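Weekly modeling sync, notes
Attendees: AB, CL, MP (scribe)

Item 1: holo prediction request
CL wants a bound-state model with 2-acetamido-2-deoxy-beta-D-glucopyranose before deciding which constructs to order. AB pointed out that an apo prediction alone won't tell us much about the pocket. Agreed to run with the ligand included and paste results into these notes for async review.

Input as submitted:
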Amino acid sequence: MMGLRLHLCFLALFSTLSISAHGLGPLCLPEEHVALFIFGDSLFDAGNNNYINTITDYQANYEPYGENFFKYSTGRFFDGRIIPDFIAEFANLPFITPYLHPGYHRYTDGVNFASAGAGALAETHQGTVIDLKSQLNNFKNLESLLSKELGDAEAKKLLFRAVYIISVGSNDYAVPFTRNSSIFQSYTPEEYVDMVISNLTFVIEEIYKKGGRKFGFPNLSPLGCLPLARALIPGNTGACKQELTALAILHNKALSEVLQKL
Ligand SMILES: *[C@@H]1O[C@H](CO)[C@@H](O)[C@H](O)[C@H]1NC(C)=O
Ligand SMILES: *[C@@H]1O[C@H](CO)[C@@H](O)[C@H](O)[C@H]1NC(C)=O
């Protein structure tokens, strides 16, 4: 995951914060309290998929996941912390808990909505993941809970000051290569990328309407070089799947342009 570069203009902001809300009641959040809301796929999922009806491939609640940091498998697709955990640590927040975790009510620190295997398109691993639009619906439910807990004005303030990070796209682009998909008979690569980006844009705009102002997005990595993609090339040569990396490059360029416009 070292290759991921974040468009994180808000990191500078975090570094000047000293968040001291721990132990305070939710009704007296200090002015500088900033929540972290997390959306997307396995790069960001902290365990939502532990609580949905899915297949083992999309869950990470068994060994050796987690062995190097948590010492047990939390549902993160890593041996240790995920990127949002490091961001949370940097912001003096606790690790942000999955939305679906039954014991979680500390919404004022933020919530993790991400789901391994998810894409911006509803069709991506449909029925086995929480797609981005459903994650948005969960966020809207959370907004109601926050309003009840804090009152409308405080809830608005919290959503306005919060940071929103979204990691999505890798699964949308990988799926057409890992299945016998006819998607590229219906769409050119550019059209397919446009469709992914417009669905992501929709979600960004909805979060904006709810008050969101600070967003961060990781670039997609060279997806064709993932072991999963290399294994698709006959002959076991270890070569990267260039068409897949090409989509990631197109996506990164299109996302950067769309974000400038937004
Ligand atoms: C694609 O279809 C062929 C023939 O129907 C089958 O042999 C192959 O396993 C399929 N590949 C995948 C990745 O599903
Ligand atoms: C979102 O993706 C779907 C396919 O999942 C597509 O039909 C639709 O046009 C896209 N929506 C937008 C706003 O582009």
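Recorded for review: The first strand starts at residue 36 and ends at 40.
Action items: CL to compare against the apo run; MP to circulate these notes.
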